[in-house]
Amino acid sequence: MYELLKRDGLAKRGRLHTVHGIIETPVFMNVGTAAAIKGAVSADDLKTIKTQVELSNTYHLHVRPGDKVVKKLGGLHRFMSWDKPILTDSGGFQVFSLADLRKIKEEGVHFHSHIDGRKIFMGPEESMQIQSNLASTIAMAFDECPSSVADREYMTNSVARTTRWLKRCKAEMARLNALPDTINKEQMLFAINQGGIYEDIRVEHAKQIAEFDMEGYAVGGLAVGESHEEMYNILDVVVPYLPAEKPVYLMGVGTPANILEGVERGVDFFDCVYPSRNGRHGHVYTNRGKLNLFNARYELDDRPIEEGCKCPACQSYSRAYIRHLLKAKEMLGMRLCVLHNLYFYNTMMEEIRNAIDAGEFKGYKKRKLDGMAGTEGP
C-alpha cells in the first residue's frame, strides 16, 4: 500500500508499505545487477550507507546462476543476506539491448544469451516466473523497449504489444502468488509506460495502463539517447496521467540533477548505475561538484572526499590515500569511492524528503544545483 503523505507543488512525499518493510519516497534504488553492488559492497555496507531498496537484474540472474538455483536457496533476500526491499526489473531492457540476435513475436522474445550463446525464450509469463523464483519485493512487468528513435508506426505497434503483455503479466503474477511453494506471495507488480518521445503515444499508453490498477507505475524508455529537455518534457506530459495515489518510477535515471528534476515532476522511485560506475573510475560526488581523484592535485590532499560526510570512506580515509589506491589498482580504492557515492545519493534523497516535508523543495533544489554546478570541487 502506498501512502501519499504530502505534496509540495508536484513533488510527492510518500510511503510504500511492503512485505519487506517500508520504503520512504522519493527513493534512490542502489543497483546490484547480479545481486551485488559492483565494487565489493556487501549487504551490511548497504545498511551503513542508508540504502532502502536494492535493485537486481532479472535477465542476468536468470542466465547466471539461474533463478531456479536462487529459489532453491530461499530466494534473493536469503541468497544475498539482505532483508530490506528488492526490486527486480523484468529483463526487457537487457533482452533488447544486450541480445544481438533476437526475434520479437506476440508470445515473447527469442534471443541468445550474451554469456554462452545458448537460446533463451522470454515472454510475460517467463519473466513473472523468473521474478517469482527470485522472490523480490517488487517485480516489473515485461515490456518491449523500442529505440527512442523508432518511427511512429513501429512505436505504436510496440506500445500496443506492451499493453497486451501487461495483461498477461498481471494474470501470471496473480497465479504465481497463489501457489503453495511461492516464496513471496505478496510480490508487487509495477507497469511500465513506453512510447519514446511521442507525447500522444505516451499519454494514451499511460491512460490504458492506469486502468489496470497496478501497485506502481514506471516511465521506461528514457535516458537512452534523448536530451535531458526531451526527457523532462515527457515527464511533464505523462506523469499527470499516472495515478497520483500510486508510486511513479523513472527507470534508469540518473544524475543528481536528473533526480531533482524528476522529483519536481512527481517521480517517487529512481535507479541508475552512475554512482557505482563513476565511483569505480575514481569520480566522486560532493555538494561542491564532482571530483576526479586520479588528478595529481589530490596527491598530497589529506582531507576526506567531502568535509562533514559521514560515509565510511570520509570517516577514515583521505583523498590522497584513496587516490593512491586507485592508481595502484587496489580494489579498496574503488570500494571506498562507490560507498561514498551511494551514501551521497541516499543522503540527497533523505534531504529531498525532508525538504518536501517542510514545504521548501523548490529552495532546496536550487541550493543543491547551485552548489554542485562546478565539475571539480575544492
Automatic annotation (TrEMBL):
Example of a GO biological process term: tRNA queuosine(34) biosynthetic process
GO MF terms, alphabetically ordered: metal ion binding; tRNA-guanosine(34) queuine transglycosylase activity
SUPFAM superfamilies: tRNA-guanine transglycosylase
A Pfam family annotated for this UniProt entry: TGT
Note accompanying the cofactor annotation: Binds 1 zinc ion per subunit.
Enzyme Commission number(s) of this protein: 2.4.2.29
Active site feature: D89 (proton acceptor), D271 (nucleophile)
Limits of the tRNA-guanine(15) transglycosylase-like domain: 11-369
Binding residue positions for Zn(2+): C309, C311, C314, H340
Entry GO terms, CC: cytosol
Residue numbers spanned by region RNA binding: 252-258
Group of enzyme by EC: transferase
Pathway(s) the chain acts in: tRNA modification; tRNA-queuosine biosynthesis
This protein's record includes keyword Acyltransferase: no
Gene3D superfamilies: Queuine tRNA-ribosyltransferase-like
Lineage top rank: taxon: Bacteria
Residues annotated to bind substrate: D89, S90, G91, G92, F93, D143, Q194, G221
Keywords: Glycosyltransferase, Metal-binding, Queuosine biosynthesis, Transferase, tRNA processing, Zinc
Known cofactor(s): Zn(2+)
Keyword Transferase: yes
Known function: Catalyzes the base-exchange of a guanine (G) residue with the queuine precursor 7-aminomethyl-7-deazaguanine (PreQ1) at position 34 (anticodon wobble position) in tRNAs with GU(N) anticodons (tRNA-Asp, -Asn, -His and -Tyr). Catalysis occurs through a double-displacement mechanism. The nucleophile active site attacks the C1' of nucleotide 34 to detach the guanine base from the RNA, forming a covalent enzyme-RNA intermediate. The proton acceptor active site deprotonates the incoming PreQ1, allowing a nucleophilic attack on the C1' of the ribose to form the product.
Assigned protein family: Belongs to the queuine tRNA-ribosyltransferase family.
Assembly and binders: Homodimer. Within each dimer, one monomer is responsible for RNA recognition and catalysis, while the other monomer binds to the replacement base PreQ1.
UniProt-recorded name of the protein: Queuine tRNA-ribosyltransferase
Taxonomy of the source species: Bacteria, Bacillati, Bacillota, Clostridia, Lachnospirales
Gene designation per UniProt: tgt
